[in-house]
């Protein structure tokens, strides 16, 4: 089962996803897809780690998530935006290549047993990116979000900490 949760920055997506995983399991899994690129981001990641209790198993990777020992578990994947950033930059900002890698990973996760709660940002609802690279990434993000939402059994949009159910099983 895939549950897709999207929304703006600080909309409550991660907290909602974690609460949902804890309702499904006493020992959930958290997959962090970020790379630490500066001190401020390192502090943010530490805060996220500290927010999760000892019952969580955490993996930090953005490649081959489906190969992790996550079968038959409640798994939070946080977040698509950082995951795509890493793929996009690894593949020389090639939208098609990055999207295909991402879609393949979602398809592989869909084939596994378990509950996969995938968190993503909605980038296209804010300011228009200033650079061509930023606009290409926003397009990639939108296409990736649509793909996950299409595959998802449930889709939830977070606004001000409140869930809006877009697709419910």
Distinctive features:
169 residues, alpha/beta, Rossmann fold, seven-stranded mixed beta sheet, 43% helix, 24% strand
What does this structure look like?
- Helix 4 packs parallel to helix 5.
- The chain has one domain: P-loop containing nucleotide triphosphate hydrolases (Rossmann fold, 3-Layer(aba) Sandwich), CATH 3.40.50.300.
- It contains 5 helices and 7 strands, in the order E-H-E-H-E-E-H-H-E-H-E-E.
- The longest helix is centred in the C-terminal third of the chain and has 20 residues.
- The radius of gyration is 15 Å and the shape is globular.
- The protein has a 7-stranded mixed beta sheet, sandwiched between helices.
- By secondary structure, the chain is α/β, with parallel strands linked by helices.
- The mean pLDDT is 92.
Briefly summarize what is shown.
The protein has helices spanning 13-24, 39-51, 80-90, 95-110, 132-151, and strands at 2-7, 29-32, 57-60, 73-78, 114-121, 154-159, 162-167. With 169 residues, the chain is α/β, with parallel strands linked by helices.
Per CATH, the superfamily is P-loop containing nucleotide triphosphate hydrolases
SSE topology string: EHEHEEHHEHEE
Per CATH, the architecture is 3-Layer(aba) Sandwich
Per DSSP, the total helix count is 5
Distance between the termini: 10 Å
The CATH topology comes to: Rossmann fold
Provide mean pLDDT, rounded: 92
Shape: globular
Share of helix, binned: 40-55%
Which CATH class? Alpha Beta
């Amino acid at each position: 089962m895939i549950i897709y949760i999207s929304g703006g920055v600080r909309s409550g997506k991660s907290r909602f996803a974690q609460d949902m995983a804890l309702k499904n399991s006493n020992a959930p899994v958290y997959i962090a897809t970020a790379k630490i690129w500066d001190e401020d981001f390192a502090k943010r990641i530490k805060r996220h780690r500290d927010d999760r209790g000892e019952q969580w198993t955490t993996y930090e990777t953005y490649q081959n998530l489906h190969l992790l020992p996550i079968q038959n578990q409640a798994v939070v994947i946080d977040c698509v935006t950082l995951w795509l950033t890493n793929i996009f930059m690894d593949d020389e900002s090639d939208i098609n290549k990055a999207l295909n890698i991402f879609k393949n990973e979602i398809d592989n996760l869909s084939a596994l047993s378990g509950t996969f709660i995938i968190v993503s940002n909605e980038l296209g609802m804010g300011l228009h990116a200033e650079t061509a690279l930023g606009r290409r990434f926003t397009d990639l993000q939108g296409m990736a979000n649509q793909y996950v939402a299409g595959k998802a059994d449930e889709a939830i949009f977070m606004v001000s900490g409140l869930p809006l159910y877009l697709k419910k099983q």
